[in-house]
Design brief:
Length: about 200
């Protein structure tokens, strides 16, 4: 069972959950019951339920919203709730990432033929789904993957959806302090926002 301790090692929330995530924006994702039939909800730092366990999947809060799913992973859809538990973006996505810089990456169109794009906090599509994978924005850019029959390559887009660094990498990480770690031909290096390799690859 999972609970929470303080910095002295004393329990502040007694072990009572089958799983617990980390606190984010004052709330912690918890799971009650078996993995097949249990549910996810949210507690505050006193252990009080703020949102009762009712979801089949639930992510941490980010920018005041959290992605949740009702139904199994094959047929259920993700939407977003606020901190009262109210569904503010309807459940319509095959997969979803946390909001970052006002946008969230979501998968639309079914696993067989669908793609990733980005929505805003009203649920409106801001960047049309056209990527095999798209990860959250960081410092104004987001990693995206373009797949062909021959290759799967990563690049970066801006918030208009324009590709600003062409897909050419075997792996890519978020930008931080102006640099991003990328891999190519099993070697790793760091690029700047102009795609200049400033360190590596090694």
């Amino acid at each position: 069972m999972y609970g929470n301790i303080d910095k002295t090692g004393d329990f502040v929330i007694r072990p009572q959950f089958d799983w617990a995530g980390t606190f984010s924006e004052g709330l912690q994702t918890i799971h009650i019951g078996g993995w097949e039939t249990g549910k996810y909800g949210y507690i505050d730092k006193t252990g009080k339920y703020i949102i009762e366990p009712e979801f089949d999947a639930a992510e941490s809060f980010s920018e005041d919203l959290a992605a949740v799913r009702i139904g199994d992973w094959e047929t259920g859809k993700y939407g977003y709730i606020d901190k009262t538990g109210e569904l503010v973006i309807d459940q319509q996505f095959d997969a979803s990432f946390p909001f970052s810089e006002g946008l969230a990456s979501v998968h639309i169109g079914g696993w067989a033929t669908g793609k990733f794009g980005f929505i805003d906090k009203t649920g409106g599509i801001i960047i049309e789904p056209r990527f095999a994978m798209a990860l959250p924005f960081s410092e104004g850019l987001a990693e995206i993957r373009i797949d062909t029959e021959e290759t799967e390559k990563w690049g970066y887009i801006d918030k208009t959806g324009s590709i600003v660094i062409e897909p050419q990498y075997d792996g890519a990480s978020p930008f931080s302090n102006g640099l991003a770690e990328v891999s190519i031909h099993r070697k790793t290096g760091y690029i700047d926002k102009s795609s200049l390799m400033v360190w590596g690859p090694y």
